């Protein structure tokens, strides 16, 4: 396994539309090795998620995992999940404001509206179908990662640019209020 370099905002790869992965290529040892590298790179950077496109490969695969994450200590845990060709459908028009960061946007966070409930359809890393419903903060994490596959960054969805903050300034001035909001969302939606 290997930790791969992460593309930063301004790199054209982050603005591409990633292409679908075929079952044949998914089953190759080379692609399975790449998925291991994606997961290892996410762990190494303490990401809550990482899209293949962020490590310079424009294919529709994302990894997610939240396990007492030091970058996002308030996020509910998400078991290690690899989604291939994911499709998200909002199940409600209701949104919440999520304070997001991104490994491809160093030292900046901002508030982004996200749907509170989604259906997820995808394949797992072995090609088996995945169908689930995700809610709350976890639904925000899914939307952030799948956005990457269409060349979108959270920056594009920041409605009020006055919410932008470095990580230090977030911690000092915005985290307490956001953690209160997260608690209310988790209490209502369960995640
Ligand atoms: Ni990101």
Features of the shown structure:
single chain; 191 residues; alpha+beta; 5-stranded antiparallel β-sheet; two-stranded antiparallel ribbon; binds nickel (II) ion
Describe the structure.
The chain is 31% helix and 29% strand. The protein has six helices and seven strands. The strands form two sheets. A five-stranded antiparallel β-sheet has the order 1-2-3-6-7. Strand 6 and strand 7 form a beta hairpin. The longest helix is centred in the first third of the chain and has 16 residues. The two termini are 31 Å apart. The mean pLDDT is 97. Nickel (II) ion binds next to helix 3.
Question: In DSSP terms, counting alpha (H) and pi (I) runs of 4 or more, how many helices?
Answer: 6
List segments where confidence is low: pLDDT < 50 over at least 5 consecutive residues: none
Q: Kindly, what is the distance between the CA atoms of the first and last residues, rounded to a whole number of angstroms?
A: 31 Å
Q: Mean pLDDT, rounded to whole units?
A: 97
Oligomerization: single chain
Q: What radius of gyration results from the CA coordinates?
A: 16 Å
Give a short account of the largest sheet: 5 strands, antiparallel
Structural class: alpha+beta
**Anisotropy-based shape:** globular
């Amino acid at each position: 396994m290997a930790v791969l370099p992460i593309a930063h905002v301004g790199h054209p790869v982050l603005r591409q539309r990633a292409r679908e992965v075929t079952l044949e290529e998914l089953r190759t040892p080379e692609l399975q090795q790449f998925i291991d590298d994606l997961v290892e790179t996410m762990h190494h950077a303490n990401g809550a998620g990482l899209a293949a496109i962020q490590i310079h490969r424009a294919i529709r695969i994302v990894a997610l995992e939240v396990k007492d994450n030091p970058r996002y200590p308030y996020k509910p845990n998400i078991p290690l999940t690899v989604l291939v060709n994911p499709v998200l459908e909002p199940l409600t028009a209701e949104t919440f404001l999520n304070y997001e960061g991104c490994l491809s946007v160093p030292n900046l966070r901002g508030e982004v509206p996200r749907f509170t409930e989604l259906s997820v359809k995808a394949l797992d890393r072995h090609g088996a179908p995945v169908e689930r419903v995700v809610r709350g903060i976890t639904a925000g994490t899914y939307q952030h990662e799948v956005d990457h596959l269409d060349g979108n960054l959270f920056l594009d969805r920041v409605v009020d640019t006055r919410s932008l903050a470095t990580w230090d300034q977030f911690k000092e001035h915005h985290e307490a209020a956001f953690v209160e909001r997260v608690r209310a969302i988790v209490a209502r939606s369960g995640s």
